[in-house]
Amino acid sequence: MRYLIVDGHSVIFSWPELRTLHVRRMVLARDELIKTLTQHQDASGVRVIAVFDGQGAKFSQETAEGGIQIFYSAATQTADQIIERLVAKYGHEHEITVATSDLLERQTTAAFGAYTVSTDGLRELIAEAQSHLLRELKSHRKKDPGEIKPPVRHGRPQSRPQTSQIADQLQKKLPRNHP
Fold first, then answer.
1. Which whole-number Å values give the CA distances from 90 to 5, 21, 59, 67, 77, in the listed order?
2. Which DSSP state fits 174?
3. pLDDT of res. 124
4. Backbone angles phi, psi at 98, to 5 degrees
5. Phi/psi zone of residue 147: left (φ > 0), alpha (ψ -120 to 50 degrees), beta?
6. Residue 105: inside a domain, yes or no?
7. Which residues neighbour 91 within 8 Å (Cβ) at sequence distance 6 or greater?
8. What torsion do the CA atoms of 120, 24, 47, 112 make, to the nearest 10 degrees?
9. How many domains does the chain have?
């Protein structure tokens, strides 16, 4: 399995559009990054983990809508420490890439066996995956030009039958002794 571990705040402070959102409100930048990473996971098939420095009393984890995992460090630790522990524990079992602008973090995680990429490199990876997905979709459309279209009556698409209409039609087709 391939994983991409992203140092969330490193990306937020490296990408100008996210840094601008962060100035307005930190959660806006974080949500936008999570949305972008979710789209990347969908486009690339690589499992994405975002790690943020937290302020709470203890470490927390959640799964965002769309399936990426999000880790928040406790106030007494850093996102870098969580990233290093993840790579040290799982680096020998999985292909892991770490995205951060922190050179020392890149060197440390590389020593544990991870590939590393800068935050600018992450932007390129995301754009490349999106471009690849679009090419695949175009190729698929060329191979199967038979697009499914709704039936047309009187020049307008017919609406889909409601569930109750479908149930009524099925009832009419079933034998009378059927419950």
1. 12, 33, 19, 19, 20
2. S
3. 96
4. -110, 130
5. beta
6. yes
7. 109, 112, 113, 114
8. 60
9. 1
Q: For the CA atoms of the chain, what is the radius of gyration?
A: 23
Supply the DSSP symbol for 74.
-
Residue 114 is part of which domain span?
2-130
pLDDT for the residue numbered 110: 96
HSE (side-chain half, CA atoms, 13 Å) at 44: 22
d(CA 9, CA 70): 12
Query: Is 148 among the domain residues?
Result: no
Q: Tell me: the pLDDT tens digits for 6-30?
A: 999 999 999 999 999 999 999 999 9
Q: Which amino acid is at 126?
A: I
Q: Which amino acid belongs to residue 156?
A: R
Q: Is residue 29 situated within a structural domain? A: yes
Q: 84-96 pLDDT, tens per residue?
A: 999 999 999 999 9
The type of residue at 150 is P
Tokens of 87: 């790579």
Longest alpha-carbon distance in the chain = 76
